[in-house]
Amino acid sequence: MAQSAGDRRRINGPEESFSPVFDDDEEDIKLKTQRSRAAGDIRPIFLQPGLISQANGSAYIETDKTKIACAVYGPRQTKTTTYSEKGRLNVEVKFTPFSCMRRRAPIRDAEDRSLAVSIHQAIVSSIRLELFPKSTIDVFITIIENDGIEGCIASASVAASTALADAGIEMLGLVSACSAAIVGDDIHLDPSEAEARASSGTVILACMPALDNVTSVWQSGHMTADMALKCMERCHERCIDIHSIVAQSLLEHRTAA
Amino acid sequence: MSSISKSEKAYIQSSLLSDPPLRADGRGLTDFRTVALESGVAPLANGSARVSIGRNAYDGGGGTEVVAAAKLEVETVGDGEGVDGGRVVCSVSCSPTAYPLLSSNALDDLQHDMTSLLHATLSHPTIRPQNLCILPGKKSWLLNLDVIIFSDAGNIFDAIFMAARAALWDTKVPRTRSVQYRAKKSDRKDATQAMDVDEATHTGSALDTRETVQVSDFELPDYWDEGEPLDGRQTWPVCLTLNLLPTSHFLDATLQEEASVPLKLLVLYSFQSDTPPLLRSMRLLGTGVSDLVQVKSLLKDGEKYARIVWTALEGKLKDEDLRRNQKARERFLNR
Amino acid sequence: MSSRIELLNAGLLRSDGRRPYELRTLSINFASQGTADGSVTFSHGLTEVRVAVLGPREAKAGSRRETLHDRATLNVEVQLAPFGVGERRRRGRGDKRLLELAATIKSTFEPVVQVHLYPRSTIDIFIHVLQLDGGLLPACINGSTLALATAGIPLFDFVCAIAGGVHGTQPLLDLTTVEENDIPSIVVGVMPRTGRVTLVQMETRLHMDRFEEVFRAACDAGKVLWSEMRDALRERTSDLVEALEAGPGAFAAKEVEEI
To answer: Ranges of Basic and acidic residues compositional bias (chain A) (predicted)?
Structure first.
C-alpha cells in the first residue's frame, strides 16, 4: 500500500540514503568530556540580582556556558475566582530558540514543564506561602544557553531563590542546588551536557544550607544507594559554598542600590 | 488530590503518630492493601497488564486501577527521532473518572508530570533492552508504553510502575529474519545461514567482490504474538512511595492520608540476582522538607520494602506466565 | 487488504463465522470505577468500552457558565486507549473524530434523560474505549444507557443501538471493523418500549430499496439487545436489594463462605 503513494513518473533516488560519517566525531566527544577542573569542583558562578527592572525581583546566573535569567512577579491576586488559603507558586520555564545545539521551536513543550516541576519542588518549601492567601507568585525563567539539563535545573533553582529574595518575599532560607553525575566510578560535580550524556546516573540536590535541610532530590539513571548518598553529600558540601555566593551577591546588590 | 479540612488533617496525622499507630482501615504503617494483577488484558498490544490496589472483594471495583500496555512499531534509524538500537517511549493518561474534580488543564498537567517520571526512568539508555534492534544502523523497534489511570484511590505511582513492569514483562518482541537482495551471479559464500537471499534479476556488474554482508530488509517469520520476551526483563524497577511524617513513615497511603502528609519520597529500585540493588530514580515530592540523615535511613528502609514488593511481583508474574501459556495449550486441545 | 477477505461465503456465513443476523456476545460488568455514581464495562464481541457516569452534580469550576437554569446539561467525553486499535495512534482530547462521537452520543441522550428534574447541574458521561472492533458508537450508547441507569438517573426509556449493513443484497447486523470498512452501514438507536428511534447515522451510500430492510432488522435487533441489557440490570438491582436486606457486611460474609 505504501508503494502506491510513491512518485512513479520521475526517477526517484534510492529509498534509503546515509549521511557521511566523519572520523573525528568520536574524538570530539572524548575531548568534550575531559574536564579542565577537578571532579569535585563546580563551574564558576556569576550571579547578579536585580537585572530586570520591571519585575518585582530578578536574577541572572551564569555558570560557564549555562546562562539563565529569572524574574519574579508578585505576590499578586490569583486570576481564578477559587479561594485558596495558601499562596500559589507558579513556575514557568522557557528555552530560547538558540539555547541548544538544535533549534528549539518557541512553543511550550514537554521538557519545559518537567524542568518547571523540578524547580518548583526545589523552592516551594522555602517560601512562606501561608502568608499570601488568595495570591500567586509567578517565577519566569528563561534559559538563554543550555549546557546540560542537570546544571540548568540547579542553576535555575539558585537564580529563582535569589530573585525571590530580591523581590522581598518572605522565605525560611535561601535555596542552593547542585548536580552530580557518575562517570565511570567517579563522581563529577556540576556536569556539562557531554558529561551527563556519558554518565550512568545523575543526582540533583536542592537544600537550604542555613537550616540544614533538603528540599528536593532528583535522581535518574542507575547507581547504588551508597553511591547516591555519596553524591548527595558532595552536592551538599558545594551547596554550602553556593549559599555564601548567593548571600554575598544579594548583600552587594543591596549596598550598591 | 482530594482536599480535606485542617481538622481532618490533624486527626489523621495524630492517629498515624500515636503509639501504636492507627490507620482508618486498620492496617499497620508498612502494610499494603490487596494488590491484584492480571496480564494480557489488551490482545492488540504486544504486552499488557492491569493492576489494582485496594479493590473491594465483592464486585472487583473501587481502589486504584491502572492499565499498562506496550506496543511495538518499526522505526527507521535516523528518521526523525529513531535511534540505533531502539527506544522506549512512555506516556500516562488519566481518565477524567479518576480525577472528577480537576479541570481539563489540571488533568493535562498531572498526566504530564506522571509521564515525565515514567519516561525518565524507563527510557533511560542504561536500562534499554538489547533486543529492540532489528537491523543494526537501519531499523529498530520503538516500544510505546501507554499507561491509563482509571481510578486513583491513593498510591498511584506504585501502581503505575507495577503495571508498567508487568506489561513490559509480558511484552513479546517478534522474531525477525534479515533479508538481502543480490545480483544473480555474485558469490554466494557471503550469505550467512540465518539469512534468506532473494535472487533478483539484475543486469549490473558481475564483478562484485564485496565480502561484507549487506542486509537491506527484514521479514517476520512467525505470527506476531509469538516472540521472545524483552532482554533483561528482571531489571525493570519497582517503585515505592514513602510517605513522610516527622518521626516515621508509612506505605501505600489512601487519598486522605496522602492529602495529610506534606512530603513523600519516591524510590525506584531494580534488583538482579548477581549485583547489588540499583537505584533507578529518586524523587522528593511535596511542600515539606527533609534532611540528609533522614534520606539516608529512608533509602535503607525503602530498599527493604522494595525488595519485598519485587519478590511478590516476580512470583506473581511467573504465575501469570504459566497461567497464560497453559490456557493457550488447553484451548488448543479442546478444539 | 480487507477486500481479500470474503465477508459472506456461499453458505451465508460471515468472516467470523456468524450468520447474517447473528449478534456478537455481550458482556456487562457493573463493577464500580473510582468515585463514579454509575459505571459499567460493556463489551460487545471484541469491542470493549468503560463508561462512568458522575452526577447530577455542580459543574466543574471551568464550565460552570454553561449550566442551564431549567435543566441539567449532559457532558460527554470520549477517550480512546492508544493500544486498543490496530495501529497505535495517540488521540488527544481535541481529536475531531472523538469530539464528533461525543456530540452524537450527547444528542442521542438529550431527549431520553429526564434533564428537567435537575436544573443548574451537569451529568458527566466519561467513556473510555479499551478495544475497538467495529460498532464503536453502538457500544458507547448501550454502555451509557446502562451506566446512567445504575447511577439512578431517571430515563424515559433505554436506548439500544446496533449497526447494520448490506452485503450484496443481504442485510448484516452488528458489523466488525473488517465489515465496516467494506460495506455500506447504518447505526440505529431505538427506544425499545415505545419503538421510537432516537438515532440513525449513515455515513456511506446505501441503495434506497435496501435501507428499509436493514433499518427494520436493526430495530428488531435493538429489542433483542434490550432484553439482554434489562436482564443484566435487573440482576444487579436484585443483588443490591438483597444486600440492603441482609444488612452491612453481608457481602464480606458471603465472600468468606465462598473461600
So the answer is: 1-13
